[in-house]
Write a structure and sequence with these properties.
The chain is an alpha+beta fold and about 400 residues long. It is about 50% helix and about 20% strand. β12 and β13 (about 325-330) form a beta hairpin. α2 (about 75-155) packs antiparallel against α3 (about 160-195) and α2 (about 75-155) runs antiparallel to α4.
Length: about 400
């Protein structure tokens, strides 16, 4: 009776260990995740004195809501000086745009050139492996014929069984070498597919991922530069219209309203009423609650299976309900700089990538009452993916070193 009790207790302990251990093996829980949301800056349209800017931080604002105004007594000479400065800035931005576009073409050529060379290298290796496979197949056939002859001679007692064993071992060795060659051929074809998809395998070929990353960063900078170009060009046209409507030496009282760029919350205020501001000065930041997401740091080795649409579980720290979201986008560890367009800054290690997970509006109700949940720490469960091929590549690289 005591023996069966001990066995039952052992089975119970084993089942409890499996219940606890299996989810930990099949899921990876990230300790670095926060709720994040984009913030948009509110800039002063003109230089002057800030007035009626009474909204407080944390206050809800609607789209195009009037936040205040800037008053300025501007002389025509001041407008002309500003116009001259803006034209110089416009020329500088256009020159910078041309330089970045040339750099973008250079990166694109490097990416294409590296891909072509990588594909040529793989094709040459495939041709070599194919030749080795044909030669080894011929060797297998020869060893099989030799074994057949030895067996016929042995049946007539012309040779000893030792010679048959040697022929059989030779055939098995030839077949094993053929299987190794075929496995290498399969690995090379997998690498060829990866190169065509611009996914470069291996630890030693990092030039193209670096170039591709720089190319993507450059495209983002070009988009921001084009936005500044449009803003500057629009301001130039506005001043030119003002100068065309006003008389020589005439002074006019200018008033420019300040509007909220999106519906959300006033996140930060950098000036108070009565402050003197210059044109383009950042007056405040508005957080966009409807575009909130979970910002997750994960090991970069797990990013390849975190494609957009992948379901991820998360919960706010201190709560018990697990919610579901879908992956919006991912980025690698090379892009780990601070992003001033987000409300919270995610703390990441050097080898960690970034996963953005969409939040359903019904999962976090009344975001305005909780400052859009920005900066709230989140527990995240990410499905773990074991990649034997990546493990094999790492072990091979370690063996070579």
């Amino acid at each position: 009776m005591g023996k069966w009790v001990r066995r039952g207790i052992g089975v119970l302990i084993f089942m409890t260990a499996m219940v606890v251990a299996v989810p930990a093996v099949l899921n990876q829980q990230s300790g670095h995740a926060v709720v994040n949301a984009p913030v948009l800056s509110v800039h002063s349209p003109i230089s002057g004195t800030l007035q009626d800017f009474n909204a407080t931080a944390g206050q809800a604002v609607s789209l195009q809501a009037r936040l205040g105004r800037v008053l300025s007594l501007r002389a025509r000479e001041s407008l002309e000086n500003e116009l001259s400065s803006l034209k110089e800035r416009l020329q500088g931005l256009q020159s910078q745009q041309a330089d970045w576009q040339r750099l973008q073409r250079t990166f694109e050529q490097r990416v294409k050139l590296h891909g072509d060379h990588e594909m040529a290298r793989l094709q040459a290796q495939l041709a070599e492996v194919d030749s080795q496979a044909r030669a080894q197949q011929a060797q297998v056939r020869q060893d099989a014929d030799t074994l057949a002859r030895q067996e016929r001679l042995a049946s007539e007692n012309f040779i000893s069984p030792v010679q048959i064993d040697a022929a059989r071992n030779a055939l098995q060795a030839s077949q094993a070498r053929l299987e190794a060659i075929q496995a290498r051929e399969k690995m090379l074809r997998i690498e060829g597919v990866a190169v065509r998809d611009q996914v470069y395998l291996g630890q030693g070929r990092n030039d193209v991922p670096y170039s591709q990353q720089k190319l993507e960063d450059l495209r983002i900078q070009l988009a921001e530069l084009q936005t500044r170009l449009r803003e500057t060009h629009s301001r130039v046209q506005q001043i030119q219209n003002q100068l065309a409507q006003g008389g020589d030496g005439q002074q006019a009282l200018q008033e420019a309203p300040i509007h909220a760029p999106v519906q959300g919350l006033l996140w930060r205020k950098f000036f108070a009423n009565g402050s003197e501001v210059i044109a383009g000065a950042e007056l405040a930041q508005v957080i966009h609650c409807r575009d909130a997401f979970v910002d997750v740091a994960v090991p970069e080795s797990q990013l390849h299976h975190m494609s957009p649409g992948t379901v991820v579980q998360y919960r706010l720290l201190g709560t018990s309900d697990w919610l579901q979201g879908r992956v919006r986008a991912t980025s690698g560890s090379g892009n780990n700089g601070a992003d001033q367009t987000l409300a919270a800054q995610l703390r990441r290690e050097r080898n960690e990538g970034r996963v953005l997970v969409d939040i359903r509006p019904q999962d976090l109700p009344q975001p305005e009452a909780s400052l859009c949940y920005a900066g709230r720490v989140v527990d995240v469960k990410i499905p773990r993916n074991w990649n034997p091929q990546a493990l094999f590549s790492r072990l091979t690289a370690m063996a070579r070193t």
